């Protein structure tokens, strides 16, 4: 039996989707925006293995529900439900791929780096990444499990 062109197309589409699958994340309170996709590269499997001394690319596609002159990122390592601030090189969202001022109803690609310093302990934790508007409201908030390793 020869498979139909539609069946082949569906199978190829499923295979391509599996290769380019976005990261599974937990939305932790996006109020003024809605997350479309979160990508951490490289992170082929979850939890993401973050190697010490390496920097990871972050790309978040989101739509804004409000207007804002600016935005600021806050990143945390969450352990035992405690948020420990995690410094990033560029917290200003307007210098991270977002064209400011932010317009209501527009989609944006937020781009940043997550450096994993050599002195960090080898540990499993949750990365929590927030982007707030100029009223300190959440444009987006997402969480993913990670494991810091040598």
Automatic annotation (TrEMBL):
Report TM segments.
none
- Keyword set includes Disulfide bond: yes
Q: What is this protein called?
A: NPC intracellular cholesterol transporter 2
Q: What range does the record give for the signal peptide?
A: 1-20
Return the Pfam families for the record. Answer: E1_DerP2_DerF2
UniProt entry tagged with the keyword Secreted:
yes
The record's listing under CDD domains reads: Npc2_like
Subcellular location per UniProt equals:
Secreted
Q: Which GO terms describe its cellular component?
A: extracellular region
**Domain (MD-2-related lipid-recognition) ranges:** 25-146
Keywords linked to the UniProt accession: Disulfide bond, Secreted, Signal
A single GO BP term for this record reads: intracellular cholesterol transport
UniProt lists the family membership as follows: Belongs to the NPC2 family.
Extract the GO molecular function terms from the UniProt entry.
Answer: cholesterol binding
